[in-house]
Design goal:
Distance between the termini: 15 Å
Number of strands: 15
Shape: globular
Structural class: alpha/beta
Order of helices and strands: HEEEHEHEHEHEEHEEEHEHEHEHEH
CATH superfamily of the largest domain: HAD superfamily/HAD-like
Strand content: 15-25%
CATH architecture of the largest domain: 3-Layer(aba) Sandwich
Strand order of the largest sheet: 5-4-1-13-14-15
CATH topology of the largest domain: Rossmann fold
Number of domains: 2
Largest sheet: 6 strands, parallel
CATH class of the largest domain: Alpha Beta
Number of helices: 11
């Protein structure tokens, strides 16, 4: 790591961490990840776990992170599902949503002033599509009907795939949205990384300064692009989806590249 990069990192007061592919893969922490988060906590440096994965609620992530050994409190986890609930409630208090998502995502919306509709509702304000690991063809048909009837279209995150370890990936929210785009001719508004509405939500919860906030992630088109769009220091880890060849081709280059977050330990130890 170059000296100027170390100096940039030492100015950071708040880290925004991706989860899948950055801190863990499936149910296994990436080597050195827990130690790095513990070092930040010990040094009084703030951090938030920010995930595009909307298949689980923030509470679910707290349970998982603690089980894997990461120090975390409930207010330190932000999901793209939360951003969707916050956005819809802000635009229309009491908004009615049809959710193509897991039961955990539906529960996530209970913290916001919105209503989650059942199947066969005549109309809704938004169809919200998440990373639905409980997806059925019936949900897709219902979403198509409502979108074709004029409902607005939200996707929690544009990720096409989700890494599950062993070099394998499974279809994510972006891939589900493409099916509905093809069926309806409609395109969703995405809530999670790389879109700056996420940064607006983060700042609604806590004070963040651009010059002292960094985003850490493994995906160029979500994590690193979010850093570029929000004008934050961006750190790309090679522990998930991206590799050096992809970085060279990317229109948005990270400020710092490391093999894994373990390589950042020496900066703060």
């Amino acid at each position: 790591m170059q000296t100027d990069q170390r100096h940039q990192l030492q100015k950071i007061k708040h880290f925004l961490f991706d989860l899948d592919g950055t801190l863990y893969l499936s149910d296994a922490p990436i080597d050195g990840a827990v130690a790095f988060i513990e070092t930040l906590a010990k040094n009084g440096i703030d951090y938030t776990f920010v995930t595009n994965n909307s298949s689980k609620s923030a509470d679910d992530y707290v349970v998982k992170l603690r089980r894997l050994g990461f120090p975390v409190s409930t207010d330190q986890v932000v999901t793209s599902g939360q951003v969707a609930g916050w956005y819809c409630a802000g635009k229309k208090p009491g908004a009615v949503l049809y959710v193509v998502g897991t039961e955990s995502l539906k529960k996530e919306f209970s913290a916001f002033n919105v209503v989650v509709a059942d199947d066969n509702v005549p109309e809704v304000d938004w169809v919200v599509v998440g990373f639905d690991t409980e997806l059925t063809y019936g949900k897709l048909c219902e979403a198509e009907r409502l979108l074709s009837s004029g409902a607005r279209f939200i996707g929690t995150n544009p990720d096409l795939v989700c890494p599950i370890g062993g070099g394998r990936f499974i279809p994510d929210c972006g891939s589900i949205c493409i099916m509905l785009e093809n069926a309806t001719g409609r395109q969703p508004m995405f809530m999670g990384k790389p879109h700056t509405i996420l940064f607006e939500y983060l700042r609604s919860r806590r004070s963040l300064l651009r010059e002292s906030t960094a985003v850490v992630g493994d995906r160029l088109y979500t994590d690193i692009a979010f850093g570029c769009n929000a004008r934050l220091l961006s750190i790309c880890t090679l522990s998930g989806e991206s590799d050096s060849a992809a970085i060279k081709k990317s229109p948005c280059r990270p400020d710092v590249v490391v093999e894994s977050v373990a390589d950042l330990l020496s900066v703060f130890s």
